[in-house]
Amino acid sequence: MPYVKAERRNIWLREKPTTPGDLNFDITSLLLDYVAEHGLNYDTINAIGGALSYADKEFYRRVVVPYEQGAIERNGDIFPAVGEIASETVGRTPKTVSGKTP
Hints:
Layout: H1 20-38, H2 42-75, H3 82-89
């Protein structure tokens, strides 16, 4: 994730989005501005795709994961430990889609 200097962080934002539609519009507008500035070509498309992909990954890593960990701590984990799943399945007779043993 590229870290932008503080003085450049809010240059392009006119207003903060208040709805998912506003957020989508702002992101799309930013992307279209980038295309207008750099031209519609493979390098531009690749740069936009990469930026979106890595922004998504960074958001997930920095925001979603801590949120989910907090929810697990508050509410308990719904997934049993992998070891529990493995030990429960060892020795089971496989079943077909109908639920009958072959």
